[in-house]
Structure formats: structure tokens, C-alpha cells
Amino acid sequence: MAFDLKSELEGAGRIGITGHIKPDGDCIGSCLACFCYIKKLFPEAVTEVFLEEPGHFFASIPERDKIITDFPDRPEFDVFIICDTNRERTGAAIKYIESAHKVLNIDHHISNMNGSGDVNHVIPGMSSCAEILYDLMDKALVDKEIAELIYLGIVHDTGVFRFSNTSPETMKKGGELIAYGFDFPMLIDTTFYLKTFVQNRFQAQIMLDAKRYCDDLVIVGVADKALMNVFGATKDDTDGAVNGLRNTAGVECAVFIYEKEDGLFKGSLRASTDRINVAVVAESFGGGGHVRAAGCEYRGTKEDMVDKLLKEIKKQL
Ligand SMILES: [Mn+2]
Predict the structure, then answer these.
(1) C-alpha 84 to ligand 1 mean position (Å)
(2) Computed over its alpha carbons, how large is the radius of gyration of the chain?
(3) Which of 25, 80, 166, 236 could form a disulfide with 100 if both were Cys (CB 3.0 to 4.6 A apart)?
(4) Does the structural domain 198-316 have CATH classification 3.10.310.30?
(5) CB 224 within 8 Å of CB 263
(6) How far, in Å, from the CA of 139 to the mean position of ligand 1?
(7) What's the 313 CA to ligand 1 centre distance in angstroms?
């Protein structure tokens, strides 16, 4: 039976929306687009959107100020929608989900194939949750703001229409969306490409210190607390560092680790070919992710973490 968003929401007086912890562009775009659309579809309903604080580069996206970031107590929701994830990764919003009368789960993660709501609409082949939502929308209700938010989600999860999850339909929808007339070059620059001066200088140093291994197929960049302190860099300034490393000719696997807390390192892994499955590498550390993008954590020294990561990677070469 086809999923129909409108009929799932019919008669609901209180509707809530959330996504995952550490919300990314698709999560933020999806949740806000869903919020704006439901406001138009059912203006008499109380609709609210809850997410952790989005990164500062999302400050000027449409309806940014509608996101409730402190997860206050609320009466039970009639319908609660989980976008772009399963209920395990919703963080503080889980309390709304557990008490909701009905939970809808709209997602594109293959790891959430069966969904974790009472009604699920999970399409793993889709570029983004935002693209799935766009397909569910009555186009007569889509306006410039909704179009911009959907576009934001698609752009972020496709790496600006570059990753292999970009289908011909994704491109067609991208064309339909920019026809609404929002400033898409500005949106892409500010939310996807821009880095602060501190971030650029910090990541330049990471690149200067980076080393290659395994006949230069693997590149490793490391930022410990001492290096982060030199630049006054925070966790946010590590965003994009692993992609910078990955964009090195001849490299098929990029590793970036930074010291999250004293002695606790967070690793990000990227593969640009199918030779190295980074999900398998991350899983050996208790982490996980996708074949070409994964993450893990390690308590110990940075040297030991790099040694162990390289050992796991070499098993696949
Ligand atoms: Mn997504």
C-alpha cells in the first residue's frame, strides 16, 4: 500500500518532527521542509520541529528559527515523524516518540530498511530523505522556502549532485527546485563549501602534517588536542577535513582522527573506490557506517589508533 503523508496526518491535532543527533544538511532540510509543508497542509494543527542546534553555517536557511533545540516537555503528540534516521539516533527527542500515538519514519538509510515507526516509508536507493519527502508532496503546496529546504537536503547528501546516489530523477528534481528562484549558489556556498578562517588554517596544518601509507593509497591526518589548541579549533572545525584528505590524487582511502576528549580519538574514514570497505575497518573498532564513509572511536594514543587502523586497512589490500 502506497504511503500517503496527508492521510497519515489527517485529524492529528499535535504533530512533531525530528531527525538525528548532530543534524546534517539532509536532516535539517528534511525536517524543516516537512514542517513548512505540514503547516500549509494542516494549518489548524500544532506542528513543531525538534533538533539539536544546527551548525552556524545553517544560520540563514528558511525557517531556521522554528527549530526547537532545547527539547522541552510537551503533551503527547498525535503523530510524530522521524526523518532521515531510526528512533535509536533521535537523542533527546525519544521522549516525544515514546509517548506519541503514532510514529511515522521516513528515511533512506539501508541500515533502517524496515523502519522503526508504526508506519514506515524507507527507500534506501534514494539520494536523500529530502528527495523522498519531495516525492510525497502535493506540488501545488510547494513554495520557494520548501523548495530551498528540499534542495538543501539533496545537495548535502549527494555532495552537490556528485555522489553515486544521484539519479537522473534527482537531477530533474534539482532542476524543478531551482526554478522556484531561491539563491542556490549562495545556499551551496554557505552551507556546503564555506569554512571559517580558523578552520581553513587548521585544516591546512592537518594536510601539511598528513602522511601516506600502503604505496600512497592511504592518507592519514591527525589533530590532537595540542594542535587544536594552537588554532583555537573546536570539533566543528574538523568538518570537511577528511574530504580534503580524500581529494588527493592516488589516494583510495583517507583517514582523519582528532582528539574528542583527552585520550579519546574520533576517526573518520573515506574510500574513493571499492577496494577498501571502510565500514569493515570502522566495525573492527566498534564503529560503523557505509562502504565508502564510516567512523569509529578509540581510547588510547593517536599512534596506536593509526597503527591499528592501518593494520585493518592492510588486511583488505
Ligand atoms: Mn540523509
Answers:
(1) 5
(2) 20
(3) 80
(4) yes
(5) no
(6) 22
(7) 26
Q: pLDDT tens digits, the chain, 317 residues: what are they?
A: 689 999 999 999 999 999 999 999 999 999 999 999 999 999 999 999 999 999 999 999 999 999 999 999 999 999 999 999 999 999 999 999 999 999 999 999 887 889 999 999 999 989 999 999 999 999 999 999 999 999 999 999 999 999 889 999 999 999 999 999 999 999 999 999 999 999 999 999 999 999 999 999 999 999 999 999 999 999 989 999 999 999 999 999 999 999 999 999 999 999 999 999 999 999 999 988 778 888 899 999 999 999 999 999 999 99
Instruction: Show me where the domains of the chain are located.
Output: 5-193, 198-316
CA of 199 to the centre of ligand 1 (A): 24
Could you tell me the distance, in angstroms and rounded to a whole number, from the CA of residue 38 to the centre of ligand 1? Answer: 20
Residues contacting 264, CB < 8 A, separation 6+: 297, 298, 299
In this structure, what C-alpha cell is assigned to residue 250? 592516488
Q: 214 CA distance to ligand 1 centroid (A)?
A: 32
Q: Does this model's pTM top 0.85?
A: yes
Q: At the top level of CATH, which class does the domain 5-193 belong to?
A: alpha beta
Instruction: List, in sequence order, every residue forming a beta bridge with 47; answer none if it has no partner.
Output: 15
Cα 102 to middle of ligand 1, angstroms: 22
Beta carbons within 8 Å of 214's beta carbon, 6+ residues apart: 310, 313, 314, 317
Distance 153 CA to ligand 1 centre (A): 7
Distance 43 CA to ligand 1 centre (A): 27
> How far, in Å, CA of 95 to CA of 116, rounded?
15
d(Cα 282, Cα 211) in Å, to the nearest integer?
Answer: 20
